[in-house]
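tool=predict chain=A
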Amino acid sequence: MRHCGLAILVILLGPCAAAVAQDWPTKPIRAVIPFGAGSATDIVPRIVFEPLSTQLGQPIVVENRPGAGSMLGTAAVAKADPDGYTLLATSTAHTITPAVYSNLPYDAAADFAAVIPFGSVANVLVISPSKGLKTIQDMVAAAKAKPGTFNYASVGVGSATHLSVERLRLSAGFEAVHVPFRGGPEALTEVMAGRVEVYFCPINTALPFIREGKLLALVVNGTKRSAELPDVPTTLEAGYRDAEFPIWLGMLVPARTPQDIIGKLHAETVQALQTPATRERLAKAGVEPLIMSPSEFDARVRKEIEANGALAKVAAIKPN
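tool=predict ok
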């Protein structure tokens, strides 16, 4: 009788769950971005949310909640009701945080359900032309020739710009000193002045300086060459295996959000991403398309959490 009752309950709940997704959304949606305004993780979601809110018939209210290495805003979403009305717009930083911070107030895998990536962004390794190093092979040779003195910039311990160089360094087999800065502009200034050797910089940020001859592009860390820098090889093309570190930007929701709502949110976001205006704006922001199903994206998030944890241990990056 007990099994029979459960079967009846499942049958009765099935149409109800579908009805919830069909009616959703009936009120404004909150999208939390755990970074400050003006960052790529802020700009890209806003581009996507504009057509998405029109399609859904409800405003998507963006709330920037930076702080504690993105943990503040992320924790708020983890604790939110799993009803489809709270979204997390984040990046690869979500999979790095568990590797560099101890005692997180949430589980980066178990407390979230992945919905869809907005796209992928590669960084380019830049150096001052005054250094006289023309290729990535030249740079690696120079670093090996003066172990302990070659250095590189990042925007902070545990940032994607930090782990990008560490992955390349371990693959190529050279030593380097990490010089963290508070932001990208300061890092770029120091590299252009020659006081710091190299920096894995977002392509669109570095592009004007590369074109002006103030910076030289050595390699990109994506899985394919950048359309903006077609003559610059990927790390794999340059001969360094397992050195790529492409950055995704995407959307997660609290765990236990109904699958029907996740499915609808995914389908509507795919449609928003494919509008000509959105595609053009994302391309100008240096974002490459990266369409995945929720299950594929979820698997990628979990795999990256594990891989970044292993990288942090090998590179001796201590948790904060």
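The first strand starts at residue 29 and ends at 33. Confidence is low (pLDDT under 50) at residues 1-10.
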